[in-house]
Specification:
This protein has about 80 residues and is mostly helical. It is about 55% helix and about 0% strand.
Length: about 80
């Protein structure tokens, strides 16, 4: 069963969403539906999202250790 849903969004966001839908040959309703399904998927046991996979290797490798990171957080927040 399908039902109507009213959303109140900023005009510029609606325009961007419509452009995205058109570029992907989908209706705006289908884009919203796909996104809601993605949000409600069971996180455990799912594959890494494509967007996350695309970010792997973007940053240069550094010699920062976990201890360095912990020290940084302690200095920043304590």
């Amino acid at each position: 069963m399908q039902s109507k849903l009213t959303l109140r969004l900023d005009d510029s966001l609606i325009k961007q969403a419509k452009t995205f839908a058109k570029q992907h040959d989908k209706s705006l309703s289908q884009v919203v539906s796909d996104y809601f399904q993605l949000l409600t998927k069971d996180v455990e046991g799912t594959e890494t999202p494509t967007i996350t996979k695309s970010l792997i290797g973007v940053l240069e490798s550094t010699d920062v250790t976990l201890d360095d990171y912990k020290r940084h957080l302690e200095e920043k927040y304590l």
